[in-house]
Design goal:
The protein is an alpha/beta fold and about 1700 residues long. The protein folds into five domains: about 55-160 and about 165-280, no CATH class; about 310-725 and about 735-795, 3-Layer(aba) Sandwich (Rossmann fold); about 835-1075, P-loop containing nucleotide triphosphate hydrolases (Rossmann fold, 3-Layer(aba) Sandwich), CATH 3.40.50.300; about 1075-1245 and about 1450-1515, Rossmann fold; about 1270-1400 and about 1545-1710, no CATH class. Helices cover about 40% and strands about 15% of the residues. The chain is built from 61 helices and 57 strands. Strands 47, 48, 49, 50, 51, 54, 55 and 56 form an eight-stranded antiparallel β-sheet that branches. Strands 15-18-14-21-22-13-24 form a seven-stranded parallel β-sheet, with helices on both faces. α3 (about 40-50) packs across α26 (about 705-715). The N and C termini lie far apart (about 90 Å).
Length: about 1700
């Protein structure tokens, strides 16, 4: 019968020994039955173990690449096609045949041995098949590709050499699916229908499991997508259950999972398909062997308690007195040295608390019976101390009971990391010189041999030998190797010398510990020890006789009996404590060095005041733990050492594996292994040692799947399963859906899946911890009579109270309550109060003398210089997570390393002073750990540490714990820095379907965060993004995502009902940075500024104006011109969300820095920012507001701006009062002017609209006028109207200007204030005759200067002149270049038919028909003509300038200004009083927008400072701030024009091959080159230019002269002179000077005797006298000269004219800003 059939028997039928069935303990009346599991559940676990085993596929030695993988489903597909493939396939066939032969032989052997047929033999297989798999092996290069691989049976080894085993590199498998080969080597479906499914290896799917960094590949898809695709796969297969449909569906699933990953930013992988045999891996085979052997096992030990029929759980009551027969069996505790490098100093043992003792008593109640004790141990509850006591207790009791064999205890972990954590269980328990605590086997000077030995896997053997003592199988014998094993060499090589050393140590103990040993041993026993020592010594000295092993063993047995007698005396003396209370009596009865310990002193004090028998018993037991039971343990250790030495002398080779393990256990009460490696030691050949272990402990059992722990449980009589189901859980490749199908197919009963889930026995979500907890022998009774799952450790001793309260808030609030809900007992009880706030400065104090120094150290020990809970609120522009192979966050990595640089050395020095050696700072690796969920962030932080800290602290990057959360599972550090990496969550609470929307740390219901937080002893500091932890979404009490809960804990958000449930009061954590929030305008410029500002400052880019008026009509006299501010429109971004996130950055922020542009609109933006943020409750935390004005992006300029910026204290009790005081940092005249301008612009737009011009306004009106020729005011000296002409020379048009002179006056440019005169002249110019000879000819050498001010407007003008770019396009390119922002060039927008203006071929703007109609309306409407006139607008501009010069202007100034100018601009001015600018933000319907309605009010953190004092972070940052009102530097209050310097890139010396240059777009490079030339040219000398000025007179022969007026045409020609100056560098720059001159080539033409000359009038229209050439560049200069807009909005105005955007009613107001 095959294995599957054998395991289908009901497990209740398995033979069980009588001792196991009879349970010695009386069942508690409250006992409950263990929930039953489906029959044959062992086969279910066995299949789960091997069905998805990856190790065998990765390491197989036969590999057949499949090039045409899609052909796998073809009817005649030949996997062995080709010579090499045929050879490989032949090996598989031969192995399968050999396996069948062995199976038949075993079946025959069974039938012969079992003549009566009690055992059913395996039936022969009628359909032999070879299980195979097609795997996808990832390759990154051709060298990774797999060739056909097989072990060559014909390849003979060299003579005398062993045949080498083929060990190819492990395959890197991402996904695979199974198939079978039949006896004809044809492809067919797997035999088991449940096996017919594709597998994506779990490590390749997000969320990726927490495991060793080098084991995690880059994710290619999502687990939830895989689950969904599996559902579709099964649906497809149900319709087409053939090989072709199966193979196609498998490939489709892989493709869809990868495609879904690509859509979310993951990279697809490349590789090859390889066919491999399916066989269990090395680690799995040992476990599978146990499953196969269980049906014939005589006993399955502790496993019977969990799966056997009729088992019960006994209730354990919390509190009350323990029975004497229970307490008397608690005999041992382990004392340890405080420092491992000083093993004999400050030795002591910590007493057990009530819950730890309850668990130990439960194990004692099992006595020799089989059973399981399950202990749920939240972090820091002393699981290790409890396990140490359990192990020691049974080891000592075996000696006391004089058992034949030493008990064997294995401690197993699910992972190598958990095993290494357990290896420290007995660290420090062995002394070096202490008479009782030292190993009596140890020669002096050798490495100490501890009480723990590792049983590593082959892969970990070398690593463990370098760190631990190991037990390893060498040549089928168990050997002790590794650290300390050399101390045993003498015992094997010279037994007499070893025995003599041991006996002398015994004698020394009588001498060094007389009080103790005289109390425990009689005088006669002392003489026995001396006699034995003397006899052994004589044996060593006797040269004539060879000592026999039996004689030597006799003397050792004498020592053994004496030790056991003393041990029994010590154990039995415990009962005397009930009658003793006085310290003197206790010390006399229990002589111990521990009476002077702080523990003993405190317990004695509590014992004297104990009022109840229960309290008295509790203190007595603790006292025994501290002063007496460690002595008992050390006596037992010496007893077992002596027995071990005698056994080695008597039987050097133990023989069987059982004996070998029992011998090893005499030295090592704790043997540590993984669940995979333990079975290798616990077997004789292939026969598992069922029920052999006296005690099995499974640690971190919450991380182990049930199928891993079950087989090992069958090897032990008793088991203690310890873990925490609220920490990291197992990661299964089996989805819940697949598991449900398998359960349904296996058991038709629909309740089977429910039974598995309740017990934690399912392979998808179960764990050995839950399986054990729901089936253990004991369960803790709750007040309402229900039973908890197992026992619970409640007292938390690791973390400071504030730290563990966060974990309680997250997970541990299943408290005991009475019927009314009153608290009876907490699930987790903090026992470590928060340390007092310490000072780093204490470490800097000079060394004091004697007692003074001791007092200082004592005071420092009660403190800590870092807060228990702290956070660094990342979220600056450079704190964005980025995705490579794994996620990382460079901003958080930088913040952490900056923190380490600043605080690390100080913390190390502080700790050294506390420890008493201030000249030797403690290594930072002993104090700090850095933890993060992502290995990408691990590498980023390590790289920064290596670059920035290693030069001053060699190899710190390797010594410092920097790893993913799993690296600290079960470990601890005084300080833990946690980097969350992710930015924001798309989910707002937990649901069953939104796993993908959650960030990584939220996908496991808080387990990961629980582990990370609970590793910190003194201080937990979170580096997390503000948008994730402190957003209003996170502050919502209904948001149950772990990150949100932690965020509310750190912020100190009070939720009374929730806190009543958790009993964990929330106190604000200490914000360690940044303490300053700086607001600037540009989102992208913020990234650059972030690198330039002082430390502790976070920069936020608001994107420009945050509030605006909706358009003409928004301002009305009905409500006194009250502004109805709406949030500005943002294309592609959510401004409301952005402002909410800004508000979240105000948490515990002490200073707000306003760094908007240094102009009127920048001041208005700063004012609006204050008005918006004042509504945020956290604005109350702001203590100062600083206005800074910078004009370049350099570190020096930024420092100057901070020093000279106006800084004011924020005062007031209400939001409005505080906002009012904050505005004192601004130039309120400038701000009020900009706000008033915006209000009036909206009003002017309404006026234009009322008069029929939609889209008109304060700037559009003058632009229409100037293009219509009426842009200048009448009465100017040069007149306001002009005519634009060219002179046609022969057939060439050259620039020319119309001139006039009267009488003997000099020639001047022609102009007129009368329209009729202009029209008359235009009509007459067509008949004018140009004199062929100039009346004036002047030669002049000019010095032309380069542009001296590289302003934005100059760049706009030059870009149009040189490239023909419209200003708005240039502005966009300029902004990207300024911010070093990458991106594609945006194409020029096409003109619109609705435009009011257009460009001609020469780049001149002219009005379209639509524009001319609008211009006529302006000119012909009296009121519009008035308000668009240049004189009025210039007066308005002057008034704004005057207002801007009043930095302390008040609201009255604003009201007066608006009232005055509203009457000037509005022809329907109302009589109502003008309203102020302060108004709430409203939506389009006028309803008030509540941006911060979900932001709760929270208190400020007060750690380390009296109430009202600044926090430590901001105190350090602002120590040198001026007092309120004081200013140490000149203050700049800005001006209306502000910093209109060009947006110059940071570096103007980039070479063509520079990487920065390569990143620029074509337009950016052109603009960069232009500005570089302009800037460099400005530093060169003026260039020489030679000009010739000619004026030709005009005559009208047919018309007589009316008056003495001459009209002429001026033409200027020129060429560079002898000294070109800057011309050589920037020849194109000459155009700004020569654009109205004729070329040098025209000089020769004009010198001809009779050139043909003719005047040509441009457009036959009137031109504005000051803008005869209305090109875009000239118009830009004209607008700037008259204050129409500002450089950043010039382009918008011109674009509105040309592109047809003037119909947008809101555009005018926005652009005019």
């Amino acid at each position: 019968m095959d294995l599957s059939k054998r395991l289908r028997k009901d497990f209740a039928a398995v033979a069980v020994s009588k001792e196991q069935v009879l349970h010695s303990m009386e069942v508690d009346p409250q006992a409950g039955p263990v929930g039953s599991l489906p029959a044959n559940v062992l086969d279910y676990w066995h299949r789960a173990l091997i069905a998805d085993d990856l190790g065998g596929l990765q390491a197989t030695d036969v590999r057949i690449p499949v090039t045409n993988f899609a052909g796998l489903a073809w009817p005649n597909f030949n996997l062995g096609f080709g010579k090499r493939r045929a050879l490989a396939l032949g090996i598989l066939t031969e192995r399968a045949a050999e396996a069948r032969r062995k199976q038949q032989a075993q079946a025959l052997e069974v039938s012969e041995d079992d003549a009566e047929g009690a055992q059913e033999a395996d039936e022969p297989d009628d359909d032999p098949r070879i299980p195979m798999a097609l795997v996808f092996h990832q390759t990154t290069s051709s060298s990774d590709e797999v060739q056909v691989t097989w072990p060559d049976p014909d390849k003979k080894p060299a003579p005398g050499a062993k045949k080498k085993r083929l060990k190819p590199d492990r395959l890197n498998i991402a996904f695979w699916f199974p198939f079978d080969l039949n006896d004809k080597n044809q492809i067919c479906l797997p035999r088991d229908p449940n096996d017919c499914r594709p597998r994506v290896v779990r490590q390749w799917l997000e969320p990726q499991p927490l495991m060793a960094a080098n084991d995690l590949p880059p994710a290619i898809g999502h687990f939830d997508c895989y689950r969904d695709e599996l559902k579709l796969f099964f649906a497809t297969l149900s319709q087409s259950a053939n090989l072709s449909g199966y193979v196609d569906a498998c490939f489709a699933l892989f493709a869809h999972v990868q495609a879904d990953g690509v859509e979310t930013g993951m990279a697809p992988i490349t590789g090859q398909w390889v066919a491999v045999p399916r066989q269990p891996g090395y680690a799995t085979r040992a476990l599978a062997n146990i499953y196969e052997a269980i049906p014939n096992a005589p006993s399955i030990g502790a496993l019977e308690q969990l799966i056997g029929a009729g088992r019960h759980r006994s209730a354990v009551q919390a509190g009350g007195m323990a029975a004497p027969q229970v307490t008397i069996r608690h005999v041992a505790m382990v004392d340890k040295a405080t420092h491992l490098d000083k093993p004999d100093v400050n030795r002591g043992a910590d007493p057990l608390n009530e819950s730890q003792r309850r668990a130990l008593h439960a194990l004692g109640r099992l006595d020799e019976q089989v059973g399981v004790v399950a202990v749920s141990g939240p972090p820091g509850t002393g699981k290790t101390a409890m396990l140490r006591a359990m192990i020691a207790n049974q080891w000592v009791l075996a000696a006391y009971d004089n058992r034949e064999h030493c008990p064997v205890t294995f401690v197993c972990g699910a992972t190598n990391q958990s095993v290494e954590n357990v290896m420290g269980t007995f660290n420090g328990a062995v002394g070096r010189k202490h008479a009782l605590a030292r190993r009596w086997l140890d020669p002096t000077g050798k490495p100490l041999l501890g009480f723990t030995a590792s049983a590593p896997s082959k892969a970990k053997g070398k690593t463990h030998r370098s760190k631990f003592t190991t037990l390893e199988i060498r040549q089928k014998q168990l050997r002790i190797l590794g650290v300390g094993s050399s101390s045993l060499k003498q015992s094997y090589e010279d037994g007499v010398a070893a025995a003599l050393a041991l006996a002398r140590h015994f004698e020394d103990a009588f001498r060094e510990l007389p009080e103790l040993f005289n109390a425990l041993f009689s005088v006669e026993q002392k003489h026995q020890v001396s006699d034995a020592t003397r006899f052994i010594y004589l044996m060593q000295k006797s040269a004539s006789t060879t000592p026999t092993a039996s004689t030597l063993c006799e003397h050792l047995n004498t020592l053994t009996q004496v030790l056991r007698s003393g041990l029994a005396s010590a154990i039995e003396r415990q009962a005397d404590i009930d009658a003793l209370i006085e310290p003197g009596e206790l010390a006399a009865r229990f002589p111990s060095e521990a009476w002077a310990s702080s523990w003993a002193i405190d317990i004695l004090a509590d014992l004297r005041v104990a009022a109840t028998p229960e309290a008295r018993q509790a203190q007595q037991q603790k006292l025994l733990d501290v002063v007496w039971r460690p002595i008992i343990f050390q006596l037992a250790a010496r007893y077992w050492e002596t027995r071990w030495l005698a056994s080695v002398i008597a039987t050097p080779e133990p023989g069987s594996r059982k004996n070998a393990l029992r011998h090893a256990a005499m030295l090592f009460p704790c043997i540590v292994a993984t669940l995979h490696s333990a079975p290798r030691l616990l077997g004789e050949g292939r026969r598992p040692l069922f029920a052999f272990l006296d005690l099995l402990i499974i640690d971190e059992a919450g991380q182990a799947a049930p199928e891993l722990g079950v087989p090992v449980l069958s090897l032990a009589k008793k088991a203690v399963v310890v873990g925490d189901m609220k920490q990291l859980s197992p990661v299964s490749s089996v989805t819940p859906e697949v598991d449900a199908r398998q359960v349904q197919d296996r058991w038709a009963d629909p309740s089977s899946l429910g039974a598995l889930l309740v017990r934690g026995a399912d392979s998808a979500t179960g764990s050995i911890m839950k399986l054990a907890a729901t089936g253990a022998s004991f369960a803790e009774a709750m007040p309402d009579g229900r039973l908890r799952d197992g026992l619970l450790l409640r007292e938390h001793y690791r973390c400071a109270e504030s730290i563990i309260n966060v974990c309680i808030d997250l997970l541990y609030h299943d408290h005991d309550r009475d019927a009314e809900g009153g608290l009876l007992g907490k699930e987790l009880e903090p026992k470590v109060p928060n340390p007092l706030a310490g000072l780093f400065a204490d470490a800097q104090l000079p060394l004091l003398e004697g007692e003074a120094e001791m007092q200082l150290r004592k005071r420092m020990k009660a403190t800590f210089p870092l807060p228990p809970l702290g956070f660094y609120q990342t979220g600056g522009p450079n704190d964005e997570p980025c995705k490579g192979d794994s996620w990382s966050n460079p901003g958080e990595a930088k913040a952490i390393v900056d923190w380490l640089k600043e605080h690390g050395p100080r913390l190390a020095k502080w700790a050294a002073r506390v420890e008493g050696h201030p000249e030797q700072p403690i290594g930072l690796e002993k104090l700090v750990a850095v933890v993060t969920p992502f290995r990408g962030q691990v590498e980023a932080i390590k790289r920064r540490v290596r670059e920035e800290l290693d030069p001053d602290d060699a190899d710190l990057s390797e010594r410092l714990t920097i790893g993913t959360v799993h690296t600290l599972q079960g470990a601890e550090k005084p300080v833990v820095l946690f980097s969350a990496v992710n930015r924001e969550s798309r989910a707002s609470r937990r649901t069953d379907t939104n796993h993908r929307e959650r960030v990584f740390i939220d996908r496991d219901d808080g387990r990961l965060l629980n582990v990370a937080i609970s590793r910190a002893q003194k201080s937990f500091i979170m580096f997390g993004h503000s948008d994730l932890f402190f957003s209003q979404q996170a502050m919502d009490p209904n948001n149950d995502l772990p990150s949100a809960v932690v965020g509310r804990c750190l912020a100190g958000v009070r939720e009374p009902e929730h806190e009543r449930l958790t009993c964990a009061p929330r106190v604000p954590a200490c914000k360690l940075g940044p303490a300053t929030l700086m607001v600037v305008e540009s989102l992208h410029k913020a990234k650059i500024i972030q690198e330039l500002v002082p430390g502790g400052t976070q920069v936020f880019g608001c994107g420009g104006h945050i509030r605006d008026l909706p358009g003409p009509g928004a301002i009305s006299w009905r409500d006194g011109l009250k502004p109805h501010w709406q949030l500005s429109e943002r294309e592609g971004s959510d401004l409301a969300a952005s402002l909410r996130n800004t508000g979240s950055r105000l948490l515990q922020c002490t200073e707000l820095v306003l760094g908007t542009d240094d102009d009127a609109q920048g001041e208005a933006i700063a004012w609006h920012m204050i008005q918006v943020l004042k509504e945020a409750p956290w604005f109350m935390h702001i203590q100062r507001v600083r206005r800074v004005r910078f004009h370049a992006l350099t570190t020096l300029e930024m420092a100057r701006s901070f020093e000279e910026g106006r800084c004011v204290q924020v005062e007031g009790a209400t939001a409005d009062e505080r906002a009012g005081s904050a505005c004192r940092a601004l130039n309120m005249g400038l701000a009020y002017g900009a706000i008033a301008q915006r209000v009036l612009d909206n009003l002017i737009g309404s006026v234009y609209m009322r008069h029929g011009i939609v889209g008109g306004g304060r700037v559009k009106g003058p632009l229409l006028r100037v293009l219509a020729g009426h842009g200048d005011s009448p009465g100017l000296p040069g007149k306001r109207l002009g005519v634009a002409i060219n002179l046609k020379v022969n057939d060439t048009l050259v620039p020319a200007r119309l001139m006039v002179r009267r009488g003997s006056e000099a020639w001047r440019a022609w102009g007129s204030d009368r329209t009729e005169s202009v029209h008359t002249l235009i009509d007459q110019l067509s008949d004018a005759v140009v004199s062929p000879t100039p009346c004036l000819l002047e030669h002049e050498d000019l010095l032309l200067a380069p542009a001296q001010s590289l302003g934005t407007n100059l760049v706009l003008q030059e870009a149009f002149r040189r490239f023909g770019w419209m200003p708005s396009s240039t502005m966009s390119t300029l902004q990207k270049l300024y911010e070093m922002r990458e991106g594609q060039d945006e194409p020029e927008s096409a003109p619109n038919d609705n435009g009011w203006a257009a460009l001609d071929a020469q780049g001149r703007l002219f009005l379209t028909e639509s524009g001319r109609r609008q211009a006529d309306k302006v000119l012909n409407n009296h009121w519009l003509n008035t308000i668009s006139a240049n004189a009025l607008l210039m007066a308005f501009d002057d008034a704004l300038t005057h207002l801007s010069q009043l930095p302390d202007a008040g609201e009255a100034d604003y009201l007066a200004f608006v009232h005055t100018w509203a009457a000037q601009f509005d022809d329907q001015c109302g009589a109502q009083p003008v309203a102020g600018p302060h108004a709430p933000t409203v939506d389009a319907q006028g309803a008030e927008v509540a941006l911060f309605s979900l932001q709760p009010a929270v208190e400020l953190n007060t750690w380390g400072a009296p109430a009202g004092s600044p926090s430590p972070a901001e105190a350090e940052q602002h120590d040198d701030d001026p007092a309120p009102g004081a200013q140490t530097h000149p203050v700049s209050d800005g001006g209306r024009s502000g910093a209109h310097g060009a947006l110059v890139p940071l570096d103007i010396s980039l070479e063509a091959d520079n990487p920065k240059m390569a990143a620029l777009t074509l337009r950016q490079r052109q603009l960069y080159d232009l500005m570089s030339k302009l800037m460099l040219a400005s530093s060169l000398r003026d260039g020489q230019f030679q000009t010739v000025r000619r004026i030709y007179t005009l005559t009208w022969p047919a018309k007589p002269a009316v008056r003495q007026v001459e009209i002429g045409v001026e033409v200027i020609t020129g060429k560079p002179g002898n000294y070109p100056g800057w011309f050589t560098l920037d020849p194109d720059g000459l155009h700004q000077h020569t654009r109205n001159w004729a070329s040098a080539e025209m000089e020769a033409v004009l010198d001809e005797q009779s050139p043909r000359l003719q005047v040509i009038v441009q457009d036959h229209g009137i031109r504005t006298r000051s803008l005869l050439e209305p090109t875009v560049d000239h118009l830009l200069a004209w607008m700037q000269a008259r204050g129409h807009g500002r450089p950043s909005t010039f382009g918008k105005h011109i674009d509105d004219l040309v592109r047809g955007n003037t119909s947008n009613a809101r555009a005018e107001g926005t652009a005019d800003e």
